[in-house]
Amino acid sequence: MGRHRSQAGRDLPGARLNLRIPGSPWLRVLAVLACAAGVVALLWWRGPDWGTVWHAFDAVKWYWVAGAIALNLLSVVVRALAWSTVINQALEPPHPRFMLVFSAFSVGLFANAVLPGRIGELARVAVLTRKLRLQGRGNGTWASLVGTVFAHRLFDLVPTALLILYVLFTAKIPHWAITSLLVVVGVGFGLFAFAFASARHHNRSVLEGVGPVRRLWEMGRAGLAVLHAPGPAAVAALFQTLGWVCQLFAVYVAMRAFDIHAPLPAAALVLLLMNVATLFPLWPGNIGLLQAAIALPLRSYGVPAGQAIAFGFGLQAIEASVGVGVGLMFLAREGLSFAMLRRMPDASEAEVPEEEAEAMEALGEEQPDTRARVPG
């Protein structure tokens, strides 16, 4: 598989893969644009005085902004360490070096920042799979790495639960926010229970003699193997929690940059609600919706609407600057283009190890490419 590839883009698992979602793509685009236009119109007509929002940036203290950017960068590094820990439990040695994992993770952050949907989650899998394949170790890793991304995101439940408890006891939280947070936590723990029941350790004997779809399912389960390893799971949860702590203090420091002197519980509430607002990115950054989610809880602390909205735009810019800046650097380092990045996540297929594909061909089965289609 991949013996005659000459271009970097063709080494990406998703570069030639296609996910067909029922319905017209134009209808989906129009639906997203309608939602975005509705949010923007609501902010424009029912929002604050936009002159006040603009002038709120005049008083920004840029040294606090630099501190918030540094804390966000530290959060990225720590969360990449968590993903690396998960990967080491899913793949057989030799494990990918941390810089390879960090590079893929950064490209994923960039994709999440500039493209709608959770495209970055599959983009980081595609980049890391490409690197492993170039080293001769990439066959059959796509499904396992997708499983590691799912497991990695599940570890967000630990800091989320701790942060919710902290906010419930210390912050001025609106009633509508309590309902949203409880729903998110309930769904999260349901997914965790499913993943824990599905997880298994990597075992070659399980993959022998099974079909391509069953093989992909078993490899995806191997990506969740860390859930059955108490030590590595605790390490991954610790790294993920430290990443959230860095983000919490980044929000607090960013508030100081905009001359907002609300207490730490207010920063915790902002962090929680902005994560809820970006859980399902309908358009790049959920711009407008995110600012509303940030500004509304700050109103309970006496922050003027214009200043709160300005802070929402500033905080999003601070977080995006890290994802876009670091992601662009590693995108160039990998020799990839933005066009390739947009094609990567259209994957509904995954590679089948070369020896199995050759065996299938020998049996006379139709096999135009050495990969198996996963029903979408």
Q: Gyration radius, to the nearest Å?
A: 22 Å
Describe the sheet with the most strands. 2 strands, antiparallel
Total strand segments: 2
Number of domains: 1
- Uncertain residue segments: 1-22, 345-376
Note the gap between the termini.
23 Å
- Tally of helical runs: 16
Structural class by secondary-structure content: mainly alpha
Q: Please, what is the average pLDDT?
A: 78
Q: Report the helical percentage.
A: 55-70%
**Structural shape:** globular
Secondary-structure element series: HHHHHHHHHHHHHHHEHE
* Proportion of strand residues: under 5%
Strand order of the largest sheet: 1-2
Describe this structure in words.
The chain is mostly helical. The chain has one domain (8-349). It contains 16 helices and 2 strands. A two-stranded antiparallel sheet has the order 1-2. The model is unreliable at 1-22 and 345-376 (pLDDT under 50).
Write the layout of secondary structure elements.
Layout (H helix, E strand, L loop, with lengths): L24 H22 L3 H7 L5 H29 L7 H17 L4 H16 L7 H13 L2 H14 L4 H24 L5 H4 L4 H11 L7 H28 L6 H14 L11 H11 L5 H29 L4 H6 L5 E3 L2 H9 L8 E3 L3
Antiparallel strand pairs: 1-2
